[in-house]
Design a protein that fits this description.
heterodimer, A: alpha/beta, D-Maltodextrin-Binding Protein, domain 2, four-stranded mixed β-sheet, 18 helices, B: mainly alpha, two-stranded antiparallel sheet, 2 strands, about 75% helix, globular
């Protein structure tokens, strides 16, 4: 028994103790076709530069992807050198000092969406990540009904959306579709509600936290925006009550896709499903940036994946080369052509070939210019939990928007007091 | 010696996580990059039991969990007993019915919760379809406020778990010697009297066990809350509160789990003390 133990231990020490040759590793997950495509990107990079890259494949589940990255970084592991981060994790990982500043390696952030770089990819004045895939909330509308009721353009302001939505809702209901509703969005108590609420808040000039990270939840602008969200359901009745009881992304998409709604707030993914062959609304859907309280002042909640280099990487220079390659015009264009991804580089949105493949890109470009990220804090889930409950409660009409946001403000102050300093 | 492997399994898979959870509850363990666990003694317990920031929400969820549990368990006991009595009679198709009645119990809870979510769906759900067919307003909402959400949850839970009660009671009914009923018939006792004097006392221990199991199970109800209401409008149960806390601070989540365990433990003690458990077994 003792001999076996001795053998096992010495073998363990031998394999872990021996010095290892550094290798460049890229940690990425996602749908099978995405991972497959990353393999091709790596192969092209290898033939071009002669630097070998190993792909560390992650699970398709977002939470698990975060966990595997955290485990590696907590243990100060030299691998992965490069990883793909959800926009929501960047602040949390950067605040632990785990990300390499990319500016030092001659990477230039100017071709990318400036707003996204400042709001999501900059930490302590240094930019530490670059957007590879950009996502944001948009307005889907029924182009056929817009024409039928004599409108030339989708709404630019929330008030226009209400007026158009009500007129079309009345008309369609009179025409026999009693299930028809004007405007659908995500109002159930879950993370999606935070994304929607942020869009209304930001388009009124508000936000959850200010530049310094202090909560400004019960600001005038936020109360006005939340009052409008409540009015959509209870005063104008352009949105059904099911918005606050059960509507999430898929609920909204299915209802709209069945032909029972005029406007829908959703993410870019819905486009592909709306335009599938078996979709009743195929060819009758248009997209537009979300309206604002003033024309041109709309906002869109930012989502998407960003590429970053680990502080513990043993091949930082080569890693930066890989980042440069992935965020180059050619690869960003290829990702858009092959996977339908919305690139982080603004110049790709003007490429004729890409636009021919995805005609919505010029509109998406307008959307992403006004993208706002959610607070990126390590204890964000605690803040989100409070906001979800209070905003949903206000939407149900049980408490006033002011009372809901006052209470949320008070609770978030306590959360920051408790978790703010490590 | 033969018990050793079993003991090992128990220690590894039961004792280790249980003790680990209790241990964790004395720490502050943030899910933050670069943060290290900090020993804080009974702070977490103090927070949930007394601190105005945490205690009201905790006690609300205790209140809701207990209310939900007792309503559900009482309804299940009554319906379960009725079903068991029916299935204990001999009639054509009894075997089939006994199997069919188990289906809800065999479905994973999350799946049945999603199914009920479809039924309650306010745009194309079955309930809405029925209500509209009966001439109700089409904008009717099934999970729109506390009362309707509460009863919607209870219906989903009762549907799912009554078969468990039925099966246990059925086993209890079959263990009653038939002679007792014959004797009672000779003495001229009517059906109801037979039920009150023979059936009920003799299945009491089995009923108590079924109710203990169901109560413990119900106190930690999570899936249907998660799927149907996500704790909206005061339908937050203890395990859902624990889940929310786990995402931020492992220590707080563990504390809620330990407190949930203590509550189930106390309820079980009450059952054993007042459930005529020992007395009926002796007689």
């Amino acid at each position: 028994m003792k001999k076996v133990l001795f053998f096992v231990l010495s073998a363990f020490l031998f394999f872990t103790g021996c010095s290892r040759t550094p290798k460049l590793t890229f940690m990425v997950g996602g749908a099978p076709n995405e991972v497959q495509y990353w393999k091709q990107v790596i192969a092209d990079f290898e033939t071009k530069t002669g630097i070998k890259v190993t792909l560390l494949e992650q699970s398709g589940k977002t939470e698990q992807r975060l966990q595997s990255i955290q485990v590696a970084l907590r243990g100060s592991q030299p691998d992965p050198d490069i990883m793909l981060l959800d926009v929501g994790w960047i602040g949390q990982i950067a605040s632990a000092g785990w990300l390499e500043s990319l500016g030092e390696y001659g990477i230039d952030p100017t071709p990318f969406f400036g707003g996204i770089i400042t709001l999501a990819d900059t930490f302590d004045g240094k930019f530490i990540a670059l957007p590879v895939y950009v996502d944001g909330g948009l307005l889907y509308y029924r182009s056929d009904l817009l024409a039928k009721y004599g409108y030339a353009n989708p709404p630019a302001t929330w008030q226009e959306l209400v007026d158009m939505g009500l007129k079309i809702q009345d008309g369609e209901r009179k025409a026999g579709n009693t299930n028809f509703v004007g405007f659908l969005w995500q109002g159930d108590k879950y993370e999606g509600l935070i994304c929607d609420a942020l869009e209304y808040f930001a388009s009124a000039g508000g936000n959850f936290l200010d530049q310094t990270g202090a909560p400004i939840i019960n600001s005038e602008a936020n109360i006005k925006a939340l009052q409008f969200m409540v009015d959509l359901i209870h005063t104008y009745k352009v949105s059904p009550e099911s918005v606050y009881t059960e509507m999430n992304e898929e609920g909204v998409r299915e209802y709209f896709q069945a032909g029972n709604a005029m406007f829908e707030r959703n993410w870019p993914y819905a486009w592909g499903l709306h335009s599938k062959d078996d979709s009743p609304v195929k060819g009758k859907v248009g997209i537009a940036p979300l309206p604002g309280f003033e024309a041109g002042k709309g906002a869109s909640t930012l989502g998407g994946w960003h590429i970053a280099v680990s502080k513990y990487s043993d091949m930082k220079k080569e890693a930066a080369e890989f980042v440069k390659y992935v965020t180059s015009f050619e690869v960003q264009k290829a990702l858009s052509m092959e996977l339908g991804w919305n690139p982080g580089r603004m110049d790709v949105y003007k490429d004729a070939e890409v636009i021919a493949k995805n005609p919505n890109l010029p509109i998406l470009r307008e959307v992403f210019i006004n993208a706002v990220p959610r607070p990126s804090l390590p204890y964000y889930t605690a803040i989100s939990d409070v906001l979800q409950a209070q905003i949903n409660e206000a939407l149900s009409g049980k408490i006033s928007p002011k009372a809901a946001l006052d209470s949320a403000q008070e609770k978030v102050i306590m959360i920051i007091k408790e978790y703010g300093n490590k | 010696m033969f018990l050793l492997p079993v003991l090992l399994v128990i220690v590894l898979f039961i004792m280790f996580p249980v003790i680990g959870t209790i241990f964790n509850s004395f720490f502050r363990m943030l899910d933050t990059a670069g943060s290290t666990p900090q020993f804080i003694g009974f702070d977490n317990y103090g927070k949930f039991l007394f601190d105005p920031q945490y205690a009201p929400r905790f006690w609300d969820s205790v209140k809701f969990t207990l209310m939900f549990t007792f309503t559900t368990v009482i309804i299940e006991a009554v319906i379960g007993l009725m079903f068991a009595l029916i299935l204990n009679e001999s009639f054509k198709g009894r075997g089939l019915l006994r199997t069919v009645i188990l289906i809800p119990w065999a479905i994973p809870t999350v799946v049945s919760a999603v199914m009920w979510k479809q039924i309650y769906n306010s745009s194309f759900g079955f309930i809405k379809w029925v209500m509209v067919a009966l001439g109700s307003d089409p904008s009717v909402i099934t999970l729109g406020d506390f009362q309707s959400a509460y009863w919607a949850l209870i219906v989903a839970e009762v549907w799912k778990t009554t078969p468990f009660v039925v099966i246990i009671l059925l086993a209890g009914l079959q263990a009653i010697p038939q002679d007792l009923y014959k004797q009672a018939q000779i003495d001229g006792a009517k059906m109801f009297r037979q039920f009150m004097k023979i059936t009920l006392p003799l299945i009491m221990p089995v009923l108590t066990i079924a109710l203990i199991f169901r109560t413990i199970d119900c106190v930690r109800v999570f899936d249907i809350i998660y799927v149907l209401t996500s704790g909206k409008w005061g339908t937050e149960t203890l395990s859902y509160l624990g889940f929310i806390n786990y995402t931020v601070d492992l220590g707080k989540g563990s504390t809620v789990s330990v407190l949930t365990f203590l509550i189930s433990f106390i309820i079980t003690l009450i059952y054993i003390k007042f459930g005529n458990f020992g007395k009926t077994i002796k007689s």
